[in-house]
Amino acid sequence: MNKFYRFILKHKVLILAIFLISSIICVFSSTKVSVNYNIMDYLPDDAPSTIALDVMEKEFGGEIPNARVMVPNVTIPQALEIKQQLKDIDGVQSVSWLDDSVNITVPIETIDKDTLESWYKDENAVFTLTIDDEKKIEALDQIREIIGEDGAMSGSSVNSAVAATETSSELATIMLIVIPIVLGILLLTTSSWLEPILFLATIGIAIVLNMGTNIFFGEISFVTNAAGSLLQLAVSMDYAIFLLHRFSEFRKDGLEINEAMIMALKKSVSSITASGITTIIGFAALILMRFKIGPDMGIIMAKSIILSLICVLILLPVLAMLSYKLIDKTQHRRFLPSFKKLGKAIYKIKIPALIIFIIILVPSILAQNSNQFLYGASEIFGDNNTQIGRDRTIIEDTFGKSNQLVLLVPNGDFETEKILSDELHDIPEVSSIVSYVDMAGAEVPTEYLPDDTLSQLISDNYSRMLLNINADYEGKRSFEIVEQIRNIAQSYYPDEYYLAGDSVSTYDMKDTVTADNVRVNAIAIGAIAIVLLLTFRSVSIPILLLLAIESSIWLNLSIPYLVGEKLFYISYLIISSIQLGATVDYAILFANRYIENREILSKKDSIIETISSTTISILTSASIMAVAGIILGEFSTNKIISQLGFLVGRGAILSTIMVLFVLPALLYIFDRVIQKTSLKYHFKK
């Protein structure tokens, strides 16, 4: 490796030019990466709802109804005019209203009240729309012009459009807030005014390279897009800090500049690489999820850490060597005090800290397993502080909840379809059904219906039934309804029917992500345990380190249960891998220093010295991660992203507490066990 390090330092200008040119290319290529905001697109290809959507697309050439639009203070004739205006919008594939369910030429008093008030109530009309996902933003803008500010829109298409238009501006705002705070943290924890700029420049280029190389995937998920850069910044910064601190140490020992950097690289590359590998494993475990947001985020975030390692081990040495004179000229006194007193204080309370840890451990495990979960995207903008949340409330207060499902059955047997429809009508939450047998009747020949209406109800192979369900998109009762409809359809058309809709996709998502949980966590923990086993050449140390970090994860995930907050299962699943992979670095650093100190110091002095020497590094990394997560949580209006941000921020804080207060007690108590279960450890007696 010495030859490689010397090559880097000999060709500094060339290395710098390569990174700068690559960064410029990646800035442009990153603008070509599209972002998918439709969470349902990430279901496995073999999920029943995914297959149903594919069949419906092939047979009817459109998507399922995905929006509700309410217009107040209109008469029935005016509502019909608005319906036609909505149908004429480019991107609106279909519009359903009262006239699709009943004959509205008869006196309104003769229309079934429940059916009438599902579409028209107190001079308010509500329409069900199917909007092309590729044209949703432009279509919804035109819909807003037609219905005015007094109108309201809701549905998965509206959620997706809002996410697409607001996320970019929110991310820009978040970055503008996070970067100055991170700069401030680095200024407090370093001894040069220039070093923080070098750190940010190095990781900033790594972020740009990661964003630009996403062009090879063509499209990324909204979760990866929103959280990826912040997570990369938070997780990778300590690699840069560790290398430059080593460089400073060797310079203080009197080594010549080049030799100091080469020694810094030699001594730090194993620790940096080990930390990077554990983080990569944490993210890579997500690749094993069947729910495709996991692989999307896992691949891109693993790539981000690899690029960060490359930038830290190749670019940062070049930047440091080119600017070391400025680093020397911009030295300042350390603003943070010595943590010797903290080490002595933690040593004194090690047993009480361990007792508290044991007391809260079991309740934390039970609480995090008792969380209530949300699986789909129906609640990501449910807050009334947002326009979309207010619109949804207005529509539901007037017309109740509405959830559109589409059932496809083999065509040609109208009598069976009629019996099926009657049984579906018996489900209390089914407010209406739009189908051929409901509109025309089983006895009426198909020639009597207009072609444009008929084409929406019958294809070459299937009859389509649009069911309006008065229930949430997800929840216990919603999932029971999905099961009930599937069972009824199965009894008439065994293995020949298809059911699609947001509730159906969410139901399948629940099955998929729940099955992913145990496998992903087990593989992540197992793989990291192997890395720790090889790094420390010890059986006991990996167990102690993983116990400390896993406990902080359990505690983090128990808090939503204790405060009565529902968790998005995606956030729950992702945070376990992220927190484990990102914060186990703190435990690795602490254990490394303890073992080094233990060879020359007593148990007591080793604990105190280790806390004193590692606290500043741990606090720097953890505070950056906490700030990035909390600000993401505070400023994102997308609840999945917001919740993930808060979990990341809180996880960094809890992991730090565990490493600084509980891990010292574990290492102290199991000191003899560590020595007996490790290779070539020679602790001082």
Helix-strand layout with pairing:
Elements: H1 2-10, H2 12-30, E1 34-36, H3 48-60, E2 67-71, H4 76-87, E3 92-96, H5 113-119, E4 120-121, E5 124-131, H6 136-147, E6 152-154, H7 156-189, H8 195-213, E7 219-221, H9 222-252, H10 257-284, H11 293-329, H12 340-348, H13 350-368, E8 373-374, H14 387-399, E9 403-410, H15 414-425, E10 430-434, H16 436-439, H17 451-457, E11 462-469, H18 476-492, E12 498-501, H19 502-536, H20 540-563, E13 567-568, H21 569-598, H22 603-635, H23 639-669, H24 671-676
Parallel strand pairs: 1-7, 8-13
Antiparallel strand pairs: 2-5, 2-6, 3-5, 4-5, 9-11, 9-12, 10-11
Helix pairs in contact: 1-10, 2-8, 2-11, 7-8, 7-22, 8-9, 8-11, 9-10, 9-11, 9-22, 10-11, 10-19, 10-21, 12-22, 13-20, 13-23, 15-18, 19-20, 19-21, 20-21, 20-23, 21-22, 21-23, 22-23
Summed up:
With 685 residues, the chain is an alpha+beta fold.
Describe the structure.
By secondary structure, this protein is an alpha+beta fold. Among the domains are: 1-32 and 190-335, Up-down Bundle (Multidrug efflux transporter AcrB transmembrane fold), CATH 1.20.1640; 65-160, Alpha-Beta Plaits, CATH 3.30.70. Helices cover 67% and strands 8% of the residues. The protein has 24 helices and 13 strands. The strands form four sheets. Strands 2, 3, 4, 5 and 6 form a five-stranded antiparallel sheet that branches. Strands 10-11-9-12 form a four-stranded antiparallel sheet. β4 and β5 form a beta hairpin. α8 runs antiparallel to α11 (293-329), α21 (569-598) packs antiparallel against α22 (603-635) and α22 packs antiparallel against α23 (639-669). The longest helix has 37 residues, at 293-329.
